[in-house]
Amino acid sequence: MFDLAAITELQSSKLKVTHPETGALVGAEIELASANHPKRKQCEFNHSRALRAKVAKKGRLQLTDPQDDADYEIDHLVACTLSWTGFARDGKPIECTPGEIRAVYESAAWLRDQATEFLRDSANFLQSTKSI
Description:
The chain is an alpha+beta fold. The protein has helices at residues 38-58, 66-80, 98-107, 109-120; strands spanning 7-9, 12-18, 25-33, 81-85, 88-89, 92-93, 126-128.
């Protein structure tokens, strides 16, 4: 029998950012919210509510505009990014504020991709508490 207590679901986990060409660690980390984190859940629930409201209003599912999808992807990453270290612009540290988070993800598709992939893999937010 498998003891479910052997695995703990974390509220967040840190992505170690890698260089998009070489794959080498760059010395920056992003703390991202797990699927159970309140900020991430709120963002995802709000998005689902908006989609459901559109269906309820029109009586059918409508395809969304690709720009709306791209905007949601950024909004989701902003909501899921709890903190970061190691990022700079022109030699000065970049503060982890919603505006700066948005600006970084909008200007660095490679970083957006790394963060999105990290969020999609639930194993990144699990910790074994007992030997298996």
